[in-house]
């Protein structure tokens, strides 16, 4: 005759009430699903946001006080209000230990009388070919590449401006007002940023065409990863007549908003886990009460209180581990759907994956769910272990 | 005194933070819109209410239609249209999936004409050539909505646009876009280039006008001018 182990006994006990066991596993599974998806969202959102900000090339922009720092703002102001900083600021900023890289920029706007019915503005961004491409290495090219030399009369077009102007690599482009020809050497892929509408030219070429010597409109700063951005920002504010535009502020604000939402959702997950936990306690306790006589017989046959405790506890752990596996499996299967749903619900979502579930997260969730199971099983197991054989057998006879 | 100690500095910081967030959000909203409109760029009137009234002063309403070669006939139709144009659609921005915006113009319940514009590659930039047509497909108005050219002023002169009035696809079918010749010599060859130094942009304009007329004929006029095209057996 085959001797069966305690695990098998526990498993068979659960199978005796299949529907109840299944519903309990389902409850735990749903709680685990929510938990994994939330942890995955937490991880995915922050890493995607960081990646998006890194892809911008620089996290901080220094512009002359009062100068519009975005092409859109400049257009709204009718192309006026550009203010300049001397190029000396570049070396002052670059010497700071927190700085990983700096790049100089010069924006210019001209009126194009042939744009639309009554004319429009065209903006050009002069960038330093030796630093800008390195900092903005994530900018993808649809065709071509960056400028061949620092003084070249060459242009790189953002996707949308290339589409509007029907420009391809090798084509010529005429800078309105100045009537200067430049050759298109690169067309960028669509990025979903203002780069799509930008015409990039070499910095020195813009300075020459627009007759601006040694002056800049902006300096982009890539701050070292381990640097204290807030402290560095304060340091930059001390530079005379400049304003600092930092994406770390934006990131902090977005993360604060997301954290608030996350706390709410975590609270819901916690409630779901507590409900699942109560369900487990209820299921196992009911099972124990229904098996009073059986437990009594087991004990009268020599089973110790520890053996009964172990058996009931194991049943709880099996329920919870099963639920945990089901939940993490569901979370893995539905990660893409969750990603789409969350993306539709949030006012802003970064471009990368929003829900990232890796093996570490799966193991952690399984650990949490199993720990919850172990905790939930203590009371029913203790109750079963304390039963006195004669009392349980007698109570069954009397009933 | 450092910024941190300045009176009201926290308020300034907060405002700056809010402004940065708003800009960021606006940028992202535009990005989202850009992602939604992933397809190739079309050519819409900048201000349809104003432009329709200017081109058809007698109009009372208009209807906007969105069509594309990809939706109507795909690669086969593209080849037909290229054959009628006498020149292949080229480049990243002249593809079958370009959405064309066509305007049907009404006076009361009566259809009185059409307006349609196309993008065309010029020497220095994109051209947007709009035609106002009557219901038979005869040009009654021509204008550039956008033009990048050294001779932009000359091309925009109303006298230049007036040379197109009265022409139809029947006339343009005789004009060979590839060679720039109109054989046998017809009304298109009588259109005078206002700046011989800008021959590229002049020919680009004629190509745009012919392309425009072919698309209107295909999408709105039921190919009523196809009988004048000699090079394609349907």
Question: How would you characterize this protein structure?
Answer:
- In chain A, strands 1, 3, 4, 5, 6, 7, 8, 9, 11 and 12 form a ten-stranded mixed sheet that branches.
- Chain A has two domains: 193 residues, no CATH class; 175 residues, no CATH class.
- In chain A, helix 2 runs antiparallel to helix 9.
- Chain A has 399 residues and is of the alpha+beta class.
- Chain B is of the alpha+beta class and 234 residues long.
- Chain B has eight helices and seven strands, in the order ααβααββββαααββα.
- In chain B, the strands form two sheets. Chain B has a five-stranded antiparallel sheet with strand order 1-2-3-4-5. A two-stranded antiparallel ribbon of chain B has the order 6-7.
- The longest helix of chain B has 28 residues.
- In chain B, 34% of the residues are buried.
- At the A-B interface, helix 6, strand 7 and helix 9 of A face helix 1, strand 3 and strand 5 of B.
List keywords for this structure.
heterodimer, A: 399 residues, alpha+beta, 2 domains, two-stranded antiparallel ribbon, 14 helices, B: alpha+beta, five-stranded antiparallel sheet, two-stranded antiparallel sheet, 8 helices, 37% helix, disordered N terminus
How do the strands and helices of this protein lay out in sequence?
The complex is a heterodimer of chains A (399) and B (234).
Chain A: H1 6-16, H2 18-55, E1 60-64, H3 71-76, E2 85-86, H4 88-94, E3 99-112, E4 120-127, H5 132-135, E5 141-144, E6 154-157, H6 159-165, E7 172-175, E8 180-188, E9 199-202, H7 203-209, E10 215-216, E11 218-223, H8 229-237, E12 242-246, H9 247-290, H10 292-300, H11 305-333, H12 335-345, H13 359-386, H14 389-398
Parallel strand pairs in A: 4-9, 6-8
Antiparallel strand pairs in A: 1-11, 1-12, 2-10, 3-4, 3-11, 5-8, 6-9, 7-8
Helix pairs in contact in A: 1-11, 2-9, 2-11, 2-13, 9-11, 9-13, 10-14, 11-13
Chain B: H1 9-36, H2 48-55, E1 61-67, H3 69-72, H4 74-85, E2 100-107, E3 110-121, E4 126-133, E5 139-146, H5 152-156, H6 158-162, H7 169-172, E6 175-176, E7 181-182, H8 199-219
Antiparallel strand pairs in B: 1-2, 2-3, 3-4, 4-5, 6-7
């Amino acid at each position: 005759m085959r001797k069966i182990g305690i695990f098998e006994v526990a498993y068979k006990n659960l199978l005796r009430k299949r529907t109840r066991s299944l519903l309990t596993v389902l409850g735990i599974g749903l709680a685990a699903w929510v938990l994994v998806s939330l942890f995955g969202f937490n991880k995915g959102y922050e890493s995607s946001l960081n990646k998006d900000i890194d892809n911008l090339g620089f996290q901080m922009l220094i512009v002359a006080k009062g100068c519009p720092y975005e092409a859109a703002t400049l257009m709204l102001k009718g192309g006026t209000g550009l203010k300049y900083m001397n190029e000396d600021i570049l070396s002052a900023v670059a010497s700071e230990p927190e700085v990983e890289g700096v790049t100089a920029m010069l924006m210019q706007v001209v009126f194009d009388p042939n744009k639309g019915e009554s004319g429009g503005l065209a903006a050009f961004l002069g960038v330093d070919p030796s630093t800008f491409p390195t900092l903005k290495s994530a900018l993808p090219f649809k065709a071509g590449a960056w400028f061949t030399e620092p003084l070249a009369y060459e242009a790189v077009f953002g996707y949308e401006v290339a589409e509007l102007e029907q420009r391809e690599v090798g084509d010529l482009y005429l800078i309105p007002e100045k009537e200067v020809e430049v050759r298109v050497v690169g067309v960028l892929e669509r990025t979903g940023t203002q780069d799509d509408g930008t015409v990039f030219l070499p910095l020195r070429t813009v300075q020459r065409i627009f007759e601006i010597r040694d002056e800049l409109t902006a300096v982009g700063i890539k701050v070292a990863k381990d640097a204290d951005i807030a402290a560095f920002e304060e340091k930059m504010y001390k530079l005379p007549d400049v304003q600092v535009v930092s994406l770390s502020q934006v990131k902090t604000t977005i993360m604060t908003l997301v954290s608030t939402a996350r706390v709410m959702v975590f609270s819901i997950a916690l409630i779901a886990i507590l409900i699942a936990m109560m369900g487990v306690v209820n299921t196992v306790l009911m099972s124990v009460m229904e098996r009073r006589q059986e437990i009594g017989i087991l004990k009268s046959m020599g089973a110790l209180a520890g053996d009964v405790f172990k058996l009931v506890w194991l049943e709880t752990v099996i329920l919870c581990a099963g639920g945990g596996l089901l939940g993490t499996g569901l979370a893995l299967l539905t990660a893409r759907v969750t990603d789409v749903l969350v993306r539709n619900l949030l006012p802003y979502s970064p471009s990368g994956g929003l829900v990232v579930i890796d093996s570490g997260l799966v193991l952690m969730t399984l650990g949490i769910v199993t720990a919850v199971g172990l905790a939930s099983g203590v009371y029913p197991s203790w109750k079963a272990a304390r039963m006195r054989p004669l009392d349980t057998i007698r109570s069954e006879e009397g009933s | 005194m450092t910024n941190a100690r300045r009176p009201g500095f926290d308020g300034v910081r907060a405002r700056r933070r809010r402004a940065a967030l708003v800009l960021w959000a606006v940028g992202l909203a535009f990005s989202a819109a850009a992602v939604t409109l992933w397809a190739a760029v079309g050519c819409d009137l900048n201000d349809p209410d104003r432009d329709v009234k200017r081109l058809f002063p007698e109009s009372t309403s208009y209807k906007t239609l969105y069509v594309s070669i990809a939706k109507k006939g795909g690669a086969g139709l593209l080849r037909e249209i290229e054959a009628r144009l006498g020149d292949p659609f080229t480049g990243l921005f002249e593809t079958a999936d370009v959405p064309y915006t066509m305007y049907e113009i009404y006076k009361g319940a009566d259809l009185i004409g059409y307006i349609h514009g196309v993008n065309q590659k010029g020497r220095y930039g994109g051209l947007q050539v709009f035609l106002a047509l009557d219901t038979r497909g005869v040009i009654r108005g021509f204008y550039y909505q956008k033009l990048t050219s050294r001779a932009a002023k000359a091309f925009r002169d109303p006298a230049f646009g007036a040379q197109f009035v009265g022409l139809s696809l029947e006339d343009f079918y005789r004009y060979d876009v590839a060679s720039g010749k109109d054989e046998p010599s017809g009304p298109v060859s009588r259109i005078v280039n206002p700046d011989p130094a800008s021959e590229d942009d002049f020919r680009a304009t004629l190509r745009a006008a012919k392309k425009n007329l072919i698309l209107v004929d295909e999408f709105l006029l039921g190919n009523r001018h196809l009988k004048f095209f000699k090079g394609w057996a349907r």
